[in-house]
Amino acid sequence: MNALVKSIPAVNRLALTGSVIFQQDQSDGPVKVSGRIQGLDPSALRGFHVHEFGNLPGNCTSAGAHYNPFNTTHGAPTDDINHRHIGDLGNIKSDDKGVANLDFSDHIIKLEGPMSIIGRSVVVHTGTDDLGRGGTPLSLTTGNSGDRAACGVISMGFTSYLSHTLIDD
């Protein structure tokens, strides 16, 4: 099963563009995340999360909180389901030209079943995710990852690699 981040009209002060593809070959297997996001600050780590809602009328504020149906604290992608949100995908790293190439797998997110991320949103944040280790209350909910820089809706789709404009908050 494949999913991709759909194109949304830009209202994007950072001019972030890109596409993200989620691929899960078996219902109990990991989800491979691949893609490319351009327009980031050079050589930066930026929080990257699946958020609750995929209805994004004009900006990213309607995406809701990190996808967290089990009401756990924020954590790292390497943490187990009892110590992270389903949507906690950590950070993406941009190169010296501000481009982040995504190529990783996650064992918690799913594309099928009651906890599927299909229809939700993916958000790139303005700051670095501290992975819930920051020692503050905000660290345990958002990872201190800052405002929402851009977002897009996760939908069923083909794996054609197209450049999509993400929207800014």
From TrEMBL:
Gene3D superfamilies the record matches: Superoxide dismutase, copper/zinc binding domain (2.60.40.200)
EC number(s) given by UniProt: 1.15.1.1
Pfam families membership: Sod_Cu
Cofactor note: Binds 1 copper ion per subunit.
Domain of life, source organism: Eukaryota
Segments forming domain Superoxide dismutase copper/zinc binding: 17-154
Keyword terms: Antioxidant, Copper, Disulfide bond, Metal-binding, Oxidoreductase, Zinc
Molecular function, one GO term: superoxide dismutase activity
Catalytically driven reaction(s): 2 superoxide + 2 H(+) = H2O2 + O2
Cofactor: Cu cation; Zn(2+)
Family listed: Belongs to the Cu-Zn superoxide dismutase family.
Role description: Destroys radicals which are normally produced within the cells and which are toxic to biological systems.
Name this protein carries in UniProt: Superoxide dismutase [Cu-Zn]
Provenance organism: Armillaria tabescens (Ringless honey mushroom)
